[in-house]
Write a structure and sequence with these properties.
- With about 375 residues, the protein is an alpha/beta fold.
- It is built from 14 helices and 18 strands.
- Helix 5 runs parallel beside helix 7 and helix 6 crosses helix 7.
- The relative contact order is 0.14.
- The two termini are about 40 Å apart.
- It is globular and about 55 Å long.
- Strands 8-7-6-3-2-1-16-17 form an 8-stranded mixed beta sheet. An 8-stranded mixed beta sheet has the order 9-10-11-12-13-14-15-18.
- The longest helix has 20 residues.
- Bound molecules: zinc ion.
Length: about 375
């Protein structure tokens, strides 16, 4: 985000009654920064800006003039994949008065054992576990010095991650809150079974931490700030089973009634994290979609077909980072062959940090979300042509 630091627009904070959803990502990692109104902020997940070596959320909030120690109300870890937690311990430590929420599966004895084993063995090889080991230390210190209020909070479907404090509540429209829609108790049980398979046997860890898919226990959160409603999808996957993932949220009788005008797409826009009913039941027909891509690995996300699907459903869609193979999805087969030969270099380049910033007035029924793109961020869909 080097280019953004000198940008006046980038540094201008939202007004008190303007909600903001910012999606940051360098192509491997994501961090979501939310303005809840009246100078209260929330950070979900973390990634580090290679230009500054710091969590991008902290750089951004500092540029806006936010006092992170007092104004960040919530820090949340949607799940413990490496691409969502790099630098998160630094964010948790800086948010001195924040409450830390995490997917409840992480609270288990199994997980703590795993973190401890991996943290002591090799911090470099197991960045996911090492980051959580750091967070646990930060929180243990905080609990010791300040008491239970600052203890980490497990997030479960229907947990309130935030709502205005009673003394301040008159400032916000009455329904304002951030509510978790997942994980459910049932999906936690599945997640724990997966974690159990990773436990050290005879003092060795059988598989790399990041090989499992704890996306079943990813926290999905609905941020309702008056009329500014956003669905933060974490990495929650959809398996087709009615008792997991998006199907379970969609079928829940306790699902909140609000439809979101913004969706942070789950799992970097991958098709295995989508469900057709999300687009009719959970978001409005005019919903704006934002994602952070995931470039490394066998299947970079979003794939060209992911982009087609997203653009068929969303009014507009944005990615935090440009990706050559998305931009060139209409290329001919010759170009395809050349690019395939270069695939290794494309994949190993994580890419420049970018930010999709969406803001709207939350007290105004007729207000629209305003999008701004910074750094390497890009529009994914061509605007609908008007006949
Ligand atoms: Zn991810």
């Amino acid at each position: 985000m080097k280019t953004a630091f000198a940008d006046e627009a980038w540094r201008s904070p939202p007004g008190e009654a303007i909600a903001e959803i910012s999606v940051f990502g360098p192509g491997k990692g994501e961090s979501i920064v939310v303005h809840l109104g009246y100078g209260h902020w929330m950070v979900v997940d973390s990634c580090v800006d290679r230009d500054t070596g710091r969590p991008v959320a902290l750089d951004y909030l500092a540029a806006l003039g936010v006092d992170v120690a007092h104004q960040v109300a919530v820090v949340a870890a949607s799940h413990w994949h490496d691409d969502h937690i790099e630098g998160l311990a630094e964010v948790v430590a800086a948010g001195e008065h924040s409450i830390f929420f995490f997917s409840v599966a992480l609270q288990s004895h199994s997980f703590l054992t795993l973190v401890k084993a991996a943290g002591e063995r090799s911090m470099m090889e197991k960045p996911g576990a090492a980051e959580f080991a750091k967070i646990i230390r930060v929180l243990e210190d905080r609990v010791r010095s300040r008491g239970r209020f600052f203890a980490p909070q497990p997030a479960l479907a229907h947990t309130l991650l935030w709502r205005p404090a009673t003394v301040e509540a008159h400032n916000w429209p009455p329904t304002s809150r951030v509510e978790a829609l997942s994980p459910s108790q049932r999906s936690i049980e599945v997640g724990l079974q997966e974690i159990a398979q990773l436990l050290p046997t005879e003092y060795t860890i059988k598989r790399r931490l990041t090989n499992v898919t704890p996306n079943h226990t990813s926290v999905v959160a609905l941020s309702v700030i008056g009329q500014a409603i956003a669905l933060l999808g974490g990495d929650l996957q959809e398996t087709g089973s009615p008792v997991h993932g998006w199907s379970e949220i969609l079928a829940s009788g306790r699902r909140p009634p609000e439809k979101a005008g913004v969706i942070k797409l789950a799992h970097h826009g991958a098709d295995n994290s989508d469900h057709p009913d999300i687009w009719t039941e959970l978001v409005t027909a005019e919903a704006v979609a934002a994602l952070a891509p995931f470039n490394p690995g066998r299947t970079p996300r979003p794939s060209p077909s992911d982009v087609d699907r997203i653009c068929a459903n969303a009014e507009a869609a944005y990615s935090s980072t440009d990706r050559p193979d998305v931009a060139r999805k209409r290329r001919d087969s010759h170009t395809e062959r050349i690019l395939r030969g270069r695939r290794h270099s494309i994949r190993s380049a994580v890419g420049e940090m970018g930010q999709v910033r969406l803001r709207r007035a939350f007290n105004d029924d007729g207000a629209a979300w305003v999008s701004e793109l910074f750094g390497a961020a890009t529009r994914l869909c061509q605007p609908q042509s008007v006949a």
